[in-house]
Amino acid sequence: MEDASVLISGIEYKIKVLAEKNKVLSKENTTLKEQNSELNILVQRQQIELKSLEEKAAILKVSKTFGSDTDRQSAKIKINELVREIDECLNLLNK
Description:
- The chain is an all-alpha fold.
- It has one domain (about 1-95).
- It is about 95% helix and about 0% strand.
- It has 2 helices and no strands.
- It has helices spanning about 1-65, 70-95.
- The relative contact order is 0.04.
């Protein structure tokens, strides 16, 4: 009988240890999920900012091209590219 009670005590102890570990890991999991959500939001914001900066850079390149008379062919090419992009966007919107 003593052997059985010793075994039961050992099992109860192990269950308590596992329950505590489970509690700690659950809290850690919740914290990590919150951090993951915050980081995903940050990534989305940075992607939006990156697109905005890329658009500004493209506008600056085009404006610099228009500023010089020596590179008119390049300006025409850029305008054609922009018109094609606008056409693609309009086609996507019409679908």
